[in-house]
Amino acid sequence: MNVNHPSLSFEVFPPNTAAGTANIKETLDRLQALNPNFISVTCSNNKSNIEETTLKLAGYINNTLKVPAIAHLPAAYLNTQQVTRILTELDSLHIHQLLALRGDIIPEVPRKDDFKYASDLIRFVHAQKPGFKISGACYPEIHPESPDLVSDIRYLKQKVDAGCNQLITQLFFDNDRFFTFKENCALAGIKVPIIAGIMPITNRKQALRLIKTTSAHLPKKFLAIFDKYEHDPASLRTAGLAYAVDQIVDLITRGAAGIHLYTMNHAETAINIQNTIGSLFNSSAQLNN
After folding, report:
1. How many H helices and E strands in the chain?
2. Taking a C-beta distance cutoff of 8 angstroms, is the pair 193, 167 a contact?
3. I need a surface site. Which of 31, 33, 138, 262 has the fewest CB within 10 A?
4. What is the pLDDT of residue 111?
5. What domains appear along the chain, each with residue ranges and CATH number?
6. Among 127, 135, 108, which residue's Cα sits nearest to residue 48?
7. TM segments (predicted)?
8. Going by DSSP bridges, is the β-strand pair 166-169/7-12 parallel, antiparallel, or unpaired?
9. Residue 164 to residues 150, 192, 225, 283, Cα–Cα distance (Å)
């Protein structure tokens, strides 16, 4: 990876309505024009239906739009037979990249027993398809279920040792915490690229949900934007986008390997960021299909 030209990538999720399906194709057409390094596709809430949701959308991205696609696989909801079938399907779609996760634990969705942790899934995929590029998730501010920082970094090292080629962070809003995390990874011998996951906050509903549910630290500057513009949608959008742009520029300047935008299936914010600071990124995909 050329550190002077870090990657730019996007995350989308499979829609569950007809209107959502129409919207996602329009969104993806617009994201394609930004020449991302890759687009990742999350799992739907019905995690047993990955072939009809995640893989179908990833196939469209990879083969129709000609943008490298990464499919999310949740370890907790898959068994070895399913993963073997999914890997075969990915091969047929010419997709040789995936993001291995444990997956959020949803009480109403039955878990499987084959892969307790993401590292178990990574190890299995690496053995079955050693040519696949495997991404893993990481938490700059510690996984909510980890007992402490040392344990969290140790578990992350296990993912990398199992065959993980790069890491993508959960969203965060305090860059200093990201770089402290990056230093801790280096001290632990974690040498794979760490891509920063960024979610621009551009509307009141999104901000309120984030404030209530996130474990990420919200800096005073971020909270001040919401306090001042909570009931002014246009100004909140402008200020939220400016915050994200400042965050991204700082990350790139200080050596982040790449930026992964959580788009929420909307292209406007990504387009605005590309128009503002697009020259800081690679102009074409670096990850090989």
Report:
1. 10, 8
2. yes
3. 33
4. 79
5. 7-280 (3.20.20.220)
6. 108
7. none
8. unpaired
9. 19, 8, 37, 25
**pLDDT of the residue at 186:** 97
Closest CA to 170 of 134, 198, 200, 205: 198
Active site (catalytic) residues? 11
**Which tokens belong to 160?**
């990398």
C-alpha distances in Å from residue 250, one per residue of 9, 81, 162, 187, 285: 17, 44, 31, 22, 22
For the record, the structure tokens of 269 come out as: 């914010």
pLDDT at 142: 87
Residues, the chain: 289
Judge if pTM exceeds 0.85: yes
Task: Centre a 10 Å sphere on the Cβ of residue 145 and count the other Cβ atoms it contains.
Answer: 11
Block means of pLDDT (10 residues each) for the chain, 289 residues, are 74 88 93 96 75 94 98 94 96 97 76 91 97 96 88 95 97 96 97 97 89 87 94 95 97 96 94 93 49
How many angstroms separate the CA atoms of 82 and 105, rounded?
A: 19
Show the DSSP H helices in 144-200 as ranges: 149-162, 175-187
Specify the pLDDT at position 49: 83
- For residues 24 and 12, the answer to whether their CB atoms sit within 8 Å is yes
Buried b (16+ CB within 10 A) or exposed e, 148-165: eeeebbebbbbbbebbbb
Backbone angles phi, psi at 261, to 5 degrees: -90, 125
**pLDDT in the model for residue 48:** 62
Q: Are 216 and 173 in contact (CB under 8 A)?
A: yes
Interacting residues of 49 by C-beta distance below 8 A, sequence separation 6+: none
